Fold LemA protein.
Amino acid sequence: MFILLAIIVLAALYVVFIYNGLVRARQVAEEAWSGIDVQLKRRADLIPNLVETVKGYAGHENKTLVEVTQARAAAQAVPAGDVAGRAAAEGILSQALGRLMVVSEAYPDLKANTGFVELQQSLETTENEIQMSRRYYNGAARDLNVKVETFPNNLIAGPFGFVKKAYFEITNEADRAVPAVKF
């Protein structure tokens, strides 16, 4: 009787140990997503100032300015928690911002504008922060996914509602391509 009771207690403790590990992994992944979200919001807040600055110098580049504005609105409209949708929308926004930077190259006065240079540097810093946050999130998502899928954790994860997290990945193959350098 004592041995049976000891086995039941050990099994219960093991289930609690696995459950707590899954909760910890899920919380780390959610905290990591929050870090990405903060950086994406920071980038979104920089964009209107950048667009207005470029508009002052290159007003006739309306198509590019509209694309950036629309891409920003689309990225912000993605529901919270939709990692794949947000990654796709942010990829489109990144492409539009890239085109905006190309437009700015054609205007020496704009490139010399202190406000534009500061905005450009802030955007570059933010892009680096997004990249680091994305790596952290993907690592946290990987750790959670491994815990959710491996045996015996999967026996506990399923009944308690633990699911895999999507990775924040580049969905546009053009973003993965190595840029061509021509002289």
